[in-house]
Write a structure and sequence with these properties.
The complex is a heterodimer. Chain A is mainly β. Helices cover 0% and strands 52% of the residues of chain A. In chain B, 0% of the residues lie in helices and 55% in strands. The N and C termini of chain B lie far apart (40 Å). The chains are: A mainly beta, B mainly beta.
Amino acid sequence: GAVVSQHPSRVICKSGTSVKIECRSLDFQATTMFWYRQFPKKSLMLMATSNEGSKATYEQGVEKDKFLINHASLTLSTLTVTSAHPEDSSFYICSASVASGTGGTQYFGPGTRLTVL
Amino acid sequence: AQSVAQPEDQVNVAEGNPLTVKCTYSVSGNPYLFWYVQYPNRGLQFLLKYITGDNLVKGSYGFEAEFNKSQTSFHLKKPSALVSDSALYFCAADSSASKIIFGSGTRLSIRP
């Protein structure tokens, strides 16, 4: 149980285009979903937290107009990287939590490797 | 500032030997503590978590972790390492509102 999927697993795009990444909780309803960015050989950097039906909460330094997050349902959240540039190339990972508040275990998707040419 | 520290970038262990991956935390209150494992080009897999109660927590794949409040540590352990345990391990703490603080990660390498 508690499976989270991401699509696509890998995407290559040209500079200036937009890319949408989907995150789905397959066998549970997620009250909260999270988006992380991971640089090579580095830890995860939390980008934003989203709750179904409400606006995402972005971490300091993350441009909300560039990284658009939509949490349309309890099983789906999307991250759109708008006007992507090479510096946006990274490994993006989503997670979903089955419980709100402290202690809710986060279950992670397999990640999406974004390469911007 | 709240933080989670993993002092070792890499840990090398021979197959069959016990392994320990260290983690200390500096988080206010009584945090919930987690261990996750990441294989190459994959997301994180949940191994175990400590909320309260017994200081020794047992998790997936034979791993366990020992919570020590006085030393603010939550070290990951396994009695007998397997080559397939080679991966990147992250310690994490959750102190409020489901926002998790991750350590920098420790690469575990098990040699045959």
